[in-house]
Amino acid sequence: MKDVMVIGAGKIGGAIALMLADSGDYRVCVADRSAEQLAKLDAHPAVHSLALDIADHAALVAALRGRFAVLSAAPFHLTGRIAQAAREAGVHYLDLTEDVATTRKVEALAEGAGSAFIPQCGLAPGFISIVANDLAKRFEKLDSVRMRVGALPQYPSNALNYNLTWSTDGLINEYIEPCEAVVEGRLVTVPALEEREEFSLDGVTYEAFNTSGGLGTLAKSLEGRVRTMNYRTIRYPGHQRIIKALLEDLNLRNRRDVLKDLFEHALPATMQDVVVIFVTVCGWREGRYEQETYANKVYAGMVGGRRMSAIQITTASGIATVLDLLAEGRLPARGFVRQEEIALADVLANRFGRAYDPDAARMRKAG
Q: How far, in Å, are 132, 227, 266, 279 from residue 142 at the CA level?
């Protein structure tokens, strides 16, 4: 069994810990400064908790020494500290961040490191990059890569058609920060919440619009090889219009604390959610212009005897799969590792990654 530390005892951190512990191959220490959050963790013989303030750098480094890896499920603005401590402790580092600046810091820390640094191991960025790169490799010449992901309530009941399903800080960050895109072959920055579109999947109409961080490192990897590439978040129609009014007309983009308080006290959380993943790649193959698409919906389900939301399952499965592949020697054991270096076939064949297999999902639904 390998000893790992998960930092952050929230819903995602708890899901990661239970998923890894239930596999029988990992002993998991969950660290958080909040005793209240630690007390909410699901009991498991392979999971124990540690009260730790990551602002105490020396204590964090000491807690990491001797472990196989640290997995950050902490808010994005704290992730850089964990990466720095992982470098000093000589342990592998994985995170879920969508924050572009944080990923750049992790990449810099990875230079010359004796352990692996693998950021963006969740859903988007993360699995979405693995899918898009797999589809892109099937073409001789690329034209466009369009990546769409949304974590949505199955039963929306308010004007925003939305419930809280993951980190409020992360949600606000992706609605406000600039977005990367490839336009006419060049990597550029585009504003969040713009370029709205509508599409239908399985008879349901959705809207999608620019949000920050979803492209991960794939944008840099494919720059110059693809004409158009973008990432957009999926919501039910009407959501973007209200969010723009809050951010622009009420100037809440400059009062994130107020916006967070509003979201957390007005939008109920839900375990009845669905994650929609839709990736389309167009290009030329044997002289013909063709399209390849990955489309999937993942619903809430049972993991380790506990009911988990779809966003918990997809996020925890993403980082657990990468950890497994690292432990099996299928990924580089040192330096910076990009999501697009991971093979989709390896993910879907993995015990954790099977959550993303659309064929398996259809079989579960039929059964």
A: 12, 7, 44, 14
